[in-house]
Design a protein that fits this description.
By secondary structure, the chain is of the alpha+beta class. Helix content is about 30%, strand content about 35%. The protein has 2 domains: about 170 residues, Immunoglobulins (Immunoglobulin-like, Sandwich); about 120 residues, no CATH class. The longest helix is centred in the first third of the chain and has 26 residues.
Amino acid sequence: MRTGRPDRSWPKSPRSLRATRAGWCFIAIVFGVGFAALNTGNNLLYLVLALMLAFLVLSGLLSESALRGIRVERKRPGELFAESSHRILLRIHNTQRRTPSFAITIEDRLSTAEGTEPVGRVFALRVGPDSFLDRSYGFQPDRRGDVEFEGFRVSTRFPFGLFVKSRRLELPEQAVIYPALDSVPLAAPAETDRRTERERARRMRTGDSISGLREFISGDAFARIHWRSSLRAGRLIVGEREAAGAPEIEIQLGLAPESGAATVEDEVRQAASEVVRHLDEGFRVGLRSPSIRFPPGAGPRHRAELLTYLARVQPGDPGVTRAPDPLRRGRSGRAGWKAAG
């Protein structure tokens, strides 16, 4: 979890201010009262004008106090898949010792070729002094590949809703969106010994030793939860188990030179689905293309390596546009490519 820091590259305008519709109406009334006071010399109008101007000054001071001590942390899931819904946690800190912050809106932003765009927004009605609140938003990427979270825009309409005052917090962070997953059948590798079906299934499900730990994601079997690590971390942790003599499968990534972008995406999606399904079932999974080969393996590091390669491979890469050599295929032999962080 990383903490957003104030943007030091904006020394001349650390804040931005925008009037709301109610604010524009209030400003118009202020000008009307001021014009009437100057033309009539009425002391009561001068008093009303002074109160309205003081009202504006008070609004600026209170909104500044709401924004001044805000710091933001972002915590995202360890794996992000295209077309799947994820929750990204934002922890909102108020570092002021005596002053609470009110009506805080946090907008998380992504870098794009055209600039930046909002990806999620959360709201906190009150953040007490020297405390924090957790808020989360839904994130559903539409395609695989690398993305960059730029930072946050923190804003408030406190106290009167006349103006929206904003500040920028920088928190650049790279992330990799893995390909979307489909439901695929399990391969049926050849038996290498005379174990019974029940014993083979038990070993594939539980394994002999834990090769790594990762966070629980939707779809994981509850039998794979590592309870001791989960209690220590305060969240569900899954143990990646690898059985001695576990079945192996190698998935081939190979497309004809005339394959279009849509075909490539379909093949990558299929390959990623097969990689995840077989790793989850205890297989040792490998991946091969004409330009690179990943030997069969298991564990979270190997899983991330395969999915990262699939997430980043592009139609113009040599491993996609060259025809593959004959190779033993996993189930359908369809290709997959994926993004890593």
